[in-house]
Design goal:
Elements (H helix, E strand, L loop, with lengths): L3 E4 L5 H8 L3 E4 L8 H8 L4 E5 L6 H6 L5 E5 L8 H6 L3 E3 L6 H17 L1 H9 L20 E5 L3 H11 L4 E5 L6 H7 L1 E3 L2 H7 L2 E4 L13 H6 L5 E4 L8 H9 L5 E4 L18 E3 L8 H19 L15
Parallel strand pairs: 1-2, 1-3, 3-4, 4-5, 6-7, 6-9, 7-8, 9-10, 10-11, 11-12
């Protein structure tokens, strides 16, 4: 008899078809996530779980899933999963690194450009029929070429972004807990600086660090106060890394020139005060939203689940101690 696995929401049908080659699949084919009690009930006899970053898996649910052996997240981040509880229960947890690096860097760059040149606001103004005559100071934006790019979180996506910046003649500075090797810095023409120095110097600050409680409100009122009034903040990392209320206040009071935001605290709900601002570009957490990237993410998660439940070692296990 095939092992049974649960798929928590609508993914591409190709993913489910591949899973069905190996497993009995309980497919919740909906864009709405499972309510907590229904998730608990449907997990009781499941050996595997394929879920999205929007599906929380807390300790109390894990404790009741006694047959569960593998939890495979379709996404790089996995702060939706209580990994410590999974590890304690001997459950493998996997993610999908690498496959969305370039796509997310593309979106970060698009937000940076759109915020700098105020593109959504100008387009909306045009569509509303307000363009009556040419003006010398019409929709003035900020130059990107030759500016200073500050990257916080110089991992795969940060390095992909730095590579794009070289084509625009930008100076790139970055902050990690520890500097990269000298040859990597040379490859991307990037220099490590302290966090406060980056915030003071950069014309564009892009956040690309993973979320954890340790970095909750990593960028708050004090940090925003260090930035130039001509600077822009771009967040394509995770909601909660930025204090959204503090960002809104800085934008409204013109203490910050602009922002591009793809992730929010409490999403899909978000602070409605963002909507009253004319100096922020907003997107609904679409950093990896190309068909190619989403298919690659899904298939990688499926491959991890197949490996985990057929005696192989999944390539992307984030708690490898359970494999021992």
């Amino acid at each position: 008899m095939k092992p049974s696995v649960l798929v928590t929401r609508h993914f591409f049908p190709e993913l489910v078809t591949r899973l069905q080659e190996y497993f009995e699949v309980d497919n919740h084919d909906s864009n709405e996530g499972l309510p907590p009690e229904e998730l608990k009930a449907r997990l009781k006899d499941k050996a595997g779980l394929l879920l999205s970053v929007a599906d929380p898996l807390p300790a109390e649910t894990i404790a009741e899933a006694r047959a569960l052996k593998a939890v495979c997240n379709v996404g790089v981040g996995y702060n939706n999963i209580d990994v410590a509880a999974c590890t304690k229960a001997g459950i493998m947890v996997t993610n999908t690194p690498d496959v969305l690096t370039e796509t997310t860097a593309d979106l970060a760059w698009a937000l940076l450009m759109a915020a700098a040149r105020r593109l959504p606001m100008a387009e909306r103004w045009l569509r509303e029929g307000q363009w009556g005559a040419w003006r010398y100071d019409l929709w003035l934006g900020t130059d990107v070429h030759g500016a200073t790019l500050g990257i916080i979180g110089m991992g795969r996506i940060g390095q992909a972004l730095a590579r794009r910046a070289t084509g625009f003649g930008m100076k790139t500075i970055y902050h990690n807990r520890t500097p990269l090797a000298a040859d990597v810095e040379a490859k991307y023409q990037a220099s490590w600086v302290e966090k406060d120095a980056l915030l003071r110097e950069a014309d564009f600050v892009v956040l690309l660090l993973p979320y954890s409680p340790a970095v909750h409100h990593y960028i708050g009122a004090a940090e925003l106060g260090l930035m130039k009034p001509t600077a822009h903040l771009i967040n394509v990392a995770r909601g909660g890394i930025v204090d959204d209320a503090a960002l809104i206040a800085a934008l409204r009071e013109r203490r910050l020139c602009g922002a591009g935001v793809d992730v929010f605290e409490g999403e899909p709900k978000f602070n409605p005060d963002f909507l009253s601002l004319d100096n922020v570009v907003l997107t609904p957490h679409i950093g990896s939203a190309s068909r190619q990237a989403r298919m690659a993410m899904g298939m990688r998660a499926v491959d991890n689940l197949i490996a985990a439940l057929t005696g192989a070692r999944p390539g992307d296990c984030v708690n490898p101690e359970v494999l021992a």
